[in-house]
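Researcher: Batch entry, complex prediction.
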Amino acid sequence: MINILSRAILMSTPLLLGATAEVFAEKAGIMIIAIEGLFLLGAWGGFVGVYLTNSYATGFLLAAALGAIAAMVYGYITIYLKQHQIVTGTALNILIAGLVAFFHRVIFGIPLLPLTIEPLKAIPIPLLHKIPVLGKVLFNQNPLTYIAFLIAPLGFFILFRTSLGLIIRSTGENPEAVDVAGLKVERIRFTVTIVAGVFGAIAGSFYSVVYLGMFTNTIIGGRGWIAFAICFLGNWNPLGAMVGALVFGIAEAVAIYMQSSGQIQLPNELFIALPYILTIILTLTRKNFNVPSKLGIPYLKGN
Amino acid sequence: MKHNAKDLILSTLLSVFAGLFVSGLLLLFLNKNPLIAYGKLFSFLFRDGYTFAEIFVKATPLIFTALAFAFTFKASLFNIGAQGQFYMGAVTVLAVSQLFGDRVSSLIALPIIFLSSFIAGGLWGAMVGYFKARFKANDFLVSMMSVYIALAFMNYLLRTVLIESKREYPQSDPIAEKLFMPVLVNGTRLHIGFILAVIIAILCWFLLYKTTIGYRVRVVGQNPVAARFAGISAGRVSILAFFISGGLAGLAGFTEVNGVQHMLVQGFNPSIGAEGIGIAILANANPIGIIFGSLLFGALKVGGSILGQTSGIPSSIIELMEGFVMIFVILSYYFRRKIELRRNIHSLMNRKSL
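Model: Structure tokens for the complex:
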């Protein structure tokens, strides 16, 4: 039981980071459809950084840098050139998949054995990890998990309790007002998109650097879309995203447990499909969304 | 209007070249000469009839998945789940084909199998449309999720009830030879499915632009407020558009199983959904343009994979070329709009000075 809970927290880490990034961008009016690609790019960048330099910091930095570049391309086309976000994001997802596979080959050739790295280990927090049950579940995790669970409340605070957050939210709700106040709508959206790109890519690096210690082209397999969905289901609120990410983390942990324990005879494929079924069911049952009113709509001056 | 059509064709061709140019530059990282690589790619396509015919074989399912995206796109709906609808179509035609075996004349069996793929894909797609209409669910999100569910479902069936009689690999037995789609050119894999795809593309064009159904779909897409005043139910259009869209993607399952593979393997053709979206964008969602876009992507796939087998260039070059072409096509949308605006302003000014 403790193991399942601990694993649930672990598996919710990238979803939480990715969903929080998505919340910020969408609050400013930009849907990051390229999030699946950002996850993949981050997973690859993190792996390459750690493999080549043996330093986790380089891995995360490389992931972040690649995420920022991809977000700049996405932001430039959708925000400044005002092209369709879903169309651009889909194109970028295909391009990133190609680029990652191509440069993996350029750097590593065709290795005889799968390349591996040492996954990032859990760091128990002094004293706190000794608390029975809770200590093992909450305070014996890897650094990325701690960061994710700190960033979500911090994100909530920034978004809903600071003037910066007010500006970001207004950019998605009422860009004309932001413009009249003398701020540049497009610049705000572009900046938020880049920050979201950085965190989206770091979220993706979880799968290679923390969880598996290796990279494959199919490592993400739709997890980026789940983070995208959690942003919706969490009602565009980082704390809502935290609840959503935990629900999916638990689902994933239970699925892994069921598969490995073999106690209940249910088809494996059901567990693989479970997060996606869950997303659809939750989308149907959730009412009263606070959709940012200018979500996905480019800002045209004097319109 | 004529100017704009010319711009469209010219700018699309330019973006295709720009996309191929940039992908070519990346080959320098592998110490390969891009010009030689592209020269080879091009000559491979024409090296024999079999390879040339492969372009059309590869283009066939892409026409269907691209049409699937385009059809909902015209109603401002987003079906990015063509991959899953294709899987539903594929697994259904396989099951129906196995059921028929060689007991039924192919003249009766093939049309029924054809219909079954359309209905299977269509129902899986209509589910998205229904959720959108009834629960205001996000169609983009639900259609994306439905891909992974369909994949798991197909893989499950291939591991259990549809598994081959040797029970060794998670794949099906081949279907009866009677149920293979007729081959068009002997000595190649080119089958009648390509003709079918072209006919369906033309039918889609007709349906979208010459019938009331198509009119309703487009009005809901372009002006939902006007549609509501005209008494068009957006919900009904959503379900119908998603049914047709899903059905089109399901047909790709028919042509791939009965036309090419003659069996079903777990998780096969994993990228035709995304490529279909790319082609639809390339063709500006025009059904006739989609035929040409699919042939281009088909050629890239055939040439790219031979290049991968013979020249030490990874086959991911295919995705690179596709991705860069798509990005440049999107950029061309921006520049075309700018040119169009400038031209309109010019003609206004000229009129004023007269």
